[in-house]
Amino acid sequence: MKIWEKCWRRNNRMRLPILLILALAGFNATVAETEAPYLYVLGVAQDAGYPQAGCYQQHCMPGWTDPRLERGATAVALVDPKASKTYLFEATPHLPRQLYQLEQQAAGYTLSGVFLTHAHIGHYAGLMFFGHESMGASNVPVFAMPRMTDYLRSNGPWSQLVAYNNIVLQPLAHNKTETFASVGVTPFLVPHRDEFSETVGYSIRGPNKTAVFIPDINKWSIWDRDIAEVIKAVDYALLDATFFGAGELPGRDMSEIPHPLVTETMAALAHLGPEQRKKIWFIHMNHTNPLLNPQSNEALLVRTAGYNIAAESTRLDL
Q: Any alpha helices (H) in the chain, and if so which ranges?
C-alpha cells in the first residue's frame, strides 16, 4: 500500500470535514470575487457619438454604412453585485441603448443613481428618457453639483422631470464623498467651459481598488492638481481623449474647444513607468479621433506606449 493511501485511511474520519472546509473556502472566494463592485464602460465617444450628425466625410462614412461601428457617447456604469444595484456616470443621448447594455450585464439590478459631470449635451441630455413621454421613471436619484442642480430645476424640459418626480436631485459638493455600501464616490472640480454648470471629475473607491473619471477638462496644465500624481494614487484613470492631435479639425480654431490632446497627455506622462502608464484608459473620443479605430496607426502607437483605449464592455474591477 502506498504511503498516501495509508495516510488517507488513517484520517478517513476527518475526510468529510476537511473537504467541506475546502469547498466552503472555494465557494467563499468565488462569492467574494463575483460580489466585488466594478466599472463597466457603456460608451466611449464625445458627446455626439460616432458617426456624428451631419458628418458625411470619409472618417464618418464607415459608421453610417456599418451599424456595428457606431459608438455611443461616453458613459460608465458602476455595478455592485452584492447590493444588486447600478449607478450611471453620465446620462447621454444614447441612454436607451446603454441601459439595455447595462441590463444585459446586470439583469434585474436596480438603477440607484446617475452622476453628472456637467451641462454639455453628451453628459446630461439623456435624462429626457426618464420622463413621462418615455420611461416614466420614478424618483431616480440624480447627483449633481450646485449649478448643475439649479440648472435642471430651473429650466425646461428638465424641470418637468423634477416636478413629475421622475428624478430626484441630490446636490453634491466638491471633494465630499457619497458612500454606497462598499463604494465611495467623490466629485472634484476641473476647469472646463462652464456655460451652464460647473464641471467635475469623479473619484470612485471600491473595497480593493480606486479609479478617477475625467471625461472633460480644458488642459492638464491649468488644473490645480498634477495629473501624474493623481494617476499614481489610483488603479485606473479614465481620461479625456477628445482629440488625438493638432490639426484634427481642419478650418477650426481648436483653442476655442480646448481639451488635452492625447499626444499632449502622453508627452506629459512619458516619465511614468510602465506600471503607471497601464492605469490610463483614454475615453471620450471625438468622431475625428483615429483612436475610435482600434486598427489605426495612432491606436497602435498609444498601445505600444503602454496606455489603454477604452471600449464598450471594458470592465475594471474595484
A: 3-10, 12-35, 61-65, 95-105, 121-124, 146-154, 158-163, 227-232, 262-268, 274-277, 297-304
Where do we find the cell 413621462?
Answer: 132
Say which residue, 299 or 247, is predicted with more confidence: 299
Give Cα 144 distance to the centre of its chain: 16
Report which DSSP code applies to 208.
S
pTM reported for the whole predicted model:
0.88
Distance CA 211, CA 237 (A): 6
**Do residues 1 and 40 make contact, with C-beta atoms less than 8 angstroms apart?**
no
pLDDT confidence tier of residue 26, bands split at 50, 70 and 90: low
Residue 6 grid coordinates: 495509508
At residue 173, what are phi and psi to the nearest 5 degrees?
A: -135, 145
Residue located via cell numbers 492638464: 220
What 3-state DSSP class applies to 183? strand
Residue 307: pLDDT over 80: yes
Beta bridge pairs of residue 187: 202
Alpha carbon 151 to its chain centroid, in Å, reads: 23
Distance CA 105, CA 118 (A): 26
Lowest mean pLDDT among 7-16, 105-114, 172-181, 272-281: 7-16
Q: Which set of grid coordinates corresponds to residue 233?
A: 494614487
The phi and psi torsions of 291 (rounded to 5 degrees) equal -70, -15
What is the number of residues in the chain?
Answer: 318
Distance CA 223, CA 278 (A): 22
CA angle 231, 234, 236 (to 5 degrees): 85
